[in-house]
Input
Amino acid sequence: MSFQKFRINPPKPYSDRMTETRAEVRALVKQKLREITGQNGAQMKWAQGAYMRDVVARYRVRIEGWPVAEIEFKNLSNIPNLRKLELLLRGWKDETIYFRHISDAEYQAMVADPMPWFGPLEDIGEAQPGEVQPDEACV
Output
């Protein structure tokens, strides 16, 4: 009698796990943004300029605890590996990464020097109303 070993549930491919983790982070961040703002239609924006304009300026909230030394703030589609996405997901679930309300003075300080919250800066110039920046495609 011959026994063959096989897996009943083979592991998911790396790319599938990346996609699922990225989607889970996006959904959780959107939920947390809606909770803190009280706005059911609030949308997270991942491009730095759009985040400043459409999240920070509009709702006077910002993300605290983002591990900028390890993961620069950018579109989740541009985060290169599963370990980093899992770090973000764990942070949001454990609430070591979270939104918090900020004062006008904190907002002005962030506008003057956004680097502590973003890591290396992208172009954070103002987009025109209705203009979609490439990083905004995935919210």
